[in-house]
Amino acid sequence: MRQLASVQRIEALEPIPGADAIERARVLGWNVVVKRGEYTVGDRVVYCEIDSLLPERPEFEFLRAACFRQAIVNGAGETLLRGGFRIKTVKLRGQVSQGICFPLSVLPEGTPTEVGVDVSDALGIVKYEVPEELGGVRLPGLNAFPSGIPKTDETRVQNLGGLLHACRGRRFTRTEKLDGSSFTAFVRGAEFGVCSRNQQLDINDTSHAFVALAARLGLAEKMRAAGADFAIQGEVVGPKIQGNKYALAEHALFVFDGFWIAEGVHVSPSSLRALVASLGLDTVPDLGEFTLDHSVDEVVAMSEGKSVLNPKVEREGIVLRPLDPMRDDRGNRVSFKAINPRFLLKYEA
């Protein structure tokens, strides 16, 4: 699970050419611009990742001019996302900075301060995520994602720590990460379901774009015909989704993952291609295989480039998975992403 704010350690400090008041700090695999002389190597800090939405508190007020975002309210007057200070990728004196550091004193008294502790809740930090205008309603009685199926989420390469070194020498697949909206469809026994990123939808409510898309693609019939309990997960792109960067005339689904529900395991990369083809669907753009022998910065550099779907725009990034599935020391599947810094600088509003 992503830690928006956590206690981390300053691993390195380097000067920024032409800058006297700021310097570059290394936290995990991230480069973060900090005030010169405020920290020393080895200091513990509160590190807030990009996409963190900090609450309106006096200690964060210095961010107002550059970072404040108004609350997002729907037509019924309901607050969909509270206001606050959004942390995003910025460029200062030629240095890309991703995230922000605070001294431990920003934490409420009694908060644990061991390295790695998640302090998002202690600081009231949530993810900045603009709700999509896709219509529809949540399925009555279901307030969350269905149990037994994992949500779609990938660890950023900067947060991998020593795992990246443990993966060296292995063959990996590389696919384009599309900038859309997360979609899940599943069959479990007689049940067919469609989900957005965080909730299950009413499959009879075709006013929701995802439900309408599933019906147009005939997913219920095709997935039931496969004769197994499984889920497919992908990115929906098109009109009214993330500005429709790919200039599509209608919504389209590109599958990036599959999950065998009864076995509780993800579909392997090679099997996924066959499964998706059998359903008459498209996978996300395949960027080829390679042997992983790269540093964090080299993987991030690999993420740069134009989108396969629309070569006029920067791709959001890449997703990397080992050809032969492996797990980390916590038993989690190894699968991670690298986001294109040029994409973030151009499109983060």
Question: What do these coordinates show?
Answer:
By secondary structure, the protein is of the alpha+beta class. The protein folds into two domains: 5-127, OB fold (Dihydrolipoamide Acetyltransferase, E2P) (Beta Barrel), CATH 2.40.50; 155-347, D-amino Acid Aminotransferase, Chain A, domain 1, CATH 3.30.470.30. 15% of the residues lie in helices and 32% in strands. Strands 16, 17, 18, 19, 20 and 21 form a six-stranded mixed sheet that branches. It is globular, with a radius of gyration of 21 Å. It starts with a strand and ends with a helix. The model has no long low-confidence stretch (mean pLDDT 92).
Q: What's the arrangement of secondary structure elements?
A:
Elements (H helix, E strand, L loop, with lengths): L4 E11 L6 E6 L2 E6 L8 E5 L3 E3 L9 H4 E2 L2 E2 L5 E3 L2 E3 L2 E4 L2 E4 L1 E3 L17 H4 L2 E2 L27 E2 L6 H4 L4 E7 L3 E8 L2 E5 L13 H9 L1 H7 L4 E8 L14 E9 L4 E2 L2 H10 L3 E2 L2 E6 L4 H7 L14 E6 L13 E4 L1 H7 L2
Parallel strand pairs: 14-24, 19-21
Antiparallel strand pairs: 1-2, 1-4, 2-3, 4-12, 5-9, 5-13, 6-9, 7-8, 10-11, 15-22, 15-23, 16-17, 16-18, 18-19, 19-20, 23-24
